[in-house]
Amino acid sequence: MNTKASLIKPIFLAICAKNQSLGDWIMDNRLISMEPNFIKKEQMAFLGDIISSNREKQLDKVLKLKNFIFEQINLAASGKLTLSPDQ
Length: 87
Hints:
Elements: H1 3-18, H2 20-31, H3 41-52, H4 58-77
């Protein structure tokens, strides 16, 4: 993770812990909506941190992530999704 991202990450997590709509927006519109070939490990780690930031909403966010993962598996199994070799 680059220096700017490492400085901003704790700020985003603190805000997401208090403002669930921001955490949901980041999760839905920035991370989950990305093309699978462009998702980086750091972004998935950040998504995990967002999920962990609010215990009251963890289950909802984990279920949303689970649904996303299974949708991607179904697309890959049907041949509609091609992953790069490093994923």
